[in-house]
Write a structure and sequence with these properties.
Elements (H helix, E strand, L loop, with lengths): L1 E7 L4 E6 H14 L5 E8 L5 E7 L7 E2 L4 E2 L5 H12 L2 E10 L7 H12 L9 E7 L5 E9 L3 E12 L1
Length: 166
C-alpha cells in the first residue's frame, strides 16, 4: 500500500492518506464522467494539530447535484457515514473533496468562498477544513490539489512531499 503525504514546510502543515482512499475517489470520479462529483473527508489530527490523517472520502450523497462545471454536495446519508467512521476509527469531519473533470485541480473562486464559509460555520465543528480536489482524467492523467483553510491566515496550499510503501 502507498502512503501519500502533502505538506507546506513553511507553515508546518501536513496531510496524509493511503492509496486506497485516492483510488475510491478516482472510481467515484470515473462514474460521473464529464460531471463534477465529490463528498466529505473524514479523519483526525495528530496531537500537535499540524498533521491531518484522512481515513475516508464519502461518495456523493443522493441529493447532490452534478453539473459539468459545478457540484452541489447534498447531505443525505452523511450523518450515518460520519458516525460509522467515528465508531470504526474515531474519525470526524475534516473537509470536502470534489472532482474537476478534464480540468485543473486548482481551486476556483467558488471553491475558496465555500471553504471559507465552512471554516466560519460552527455547525461543522471544523475551523480549519481541508479541500481535496482531483482534476483531469481519473482513468489516465489526473492531478491532486490539497489546501488547508486556516482560521487565522487564509488558505494554505500543500504540495506532494512523498509517496511511501507501507
Amino acid at each position: 500500500m502507498l502512503l501519500h503525504r502533502y505538506r507546506n514546510p513553511e507553515r508546518g502543515l501536513e496531510v496524509e492518506f493511503d492509496e486506497t482512499i485516492l483510488n475510491e475517489m478516482l472510481k467515484e470520479c470515473s462514474s460521473y464522467g464529464k460531471y463534477e462529483t465529490g463528498g466529505i473527508l473524514a479523519g483526525y489530527y495528530d496531537d500537535s494539530l499540524k498533521k491531518a490523517v484522512i481515513v475516508g472520502g464519502s461518495i456523493a450523497p443522493e441529493d447532490s447535484r452534478h453539473m459539468r462545471a459545478r457540484f452541489h454536495r447534498g447531505i443525505k446519508g452523511l450523518k450515518s457515514w460520519l458516525k460509522e467512521k467515528w465508531d470504526e476509527e474515531k474519525a470526524y469531519y475534516l473537509g470536502e473533496w470534489h472532482f474537476h473533470p478534464f480540468s485543473s485541480s486548482e481551486m476556483s473562486p467558488v471553491d475558496i468562498n465555500q471553504m471559507q464559509e465552512i471554516s466560519k460555520d460552527k455547525s461543522y465543528h471544523c475551523p480549519e477544513p481541508i479541500l481535496f480536489i482531483i482534476g483531469g482524467d481519473p482513468n489516465n492523467t489526473y492531478s491532486v490539489s490539497i489546501t488547508v483553510f486556516r482560521s487565522n491566515g487564509g488558505p494554505v496550499q500543500l504540495t506532494e512531499h512523498s509517496i511511501e510503501y507501507l
